[in-house]
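Cross-check.
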Amino acid sequence: MDEKHPKDIDPRPKRRKDKDNPYEIFTIGGHTVHPKYFVSFHDGNGKKICKAIEKSLFDCLNSFELEDLSHLNKVDRHIEQSELSE
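Predicted model, tokenized:
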């Protein structure tokens, strides 16, 4: 796949990501009978790679992103404020 994302990507909400999250997931044709799932990342040489993946792996990566987002929100709400008040 080309380095640029396809133009017909299904809209997904933009998520805030941890700086250590090395990948981006997306679907093409999510509202069709046969959606395709992809992950993109940079390899060790800095080249952008885009690979098709199975739905089960997509669901796992999506779950990991949601867990990371939950953790970032907890840090923002509780930990940083407690450090400021001490």
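Residues 23-85 form one domain. The chain has a mean pLDDT of 79. Passed to J.P. for a second look.
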